[in-house]
Amino acid sequence: MFRRLLTLAIGATLACAGALAVAAPAQAAVVDIPFGPLSIGDYCHSRYPSAWIGFYESSGLRCYTGSGGPPQYVGSGDPYLACKFLTTDVVMSAFRGTADSLVCRVVR
């Protein structure tokens, strides 16, 4: 009786181990995450304390400040580093989206 129970337990263990060994690994997904001017501004503020808004313009990522008047340019930033600042996902690339937004292509 004991021998049968032991054989059954070993067989069940091997079957479970075999099922886990051939299971497909989890697939990573590539996702585009858009960020607007205020989110870009968070990154800009980390570089330039007076900056509060940012745009990804044709000339690059630019940071602005202003209170009551038109925004004033204070400096530029790196789009890839902005993505690294704004998301904890693995960043593949950064590119310009519609309305001067920043789009981060990430792996999840």
UniProtKB/TrEMBL annotation:
<feature type="signal peptide">
    <location>
        <begin position="1"/>
        <end position="28"/>
    </location>
</feature>
<protein>
    <recommendedName>
        <fullName>Secreted protein</fullName>
    </recommendedName>
</protein>
<keyword id="KW-0732">Signal</keyword>
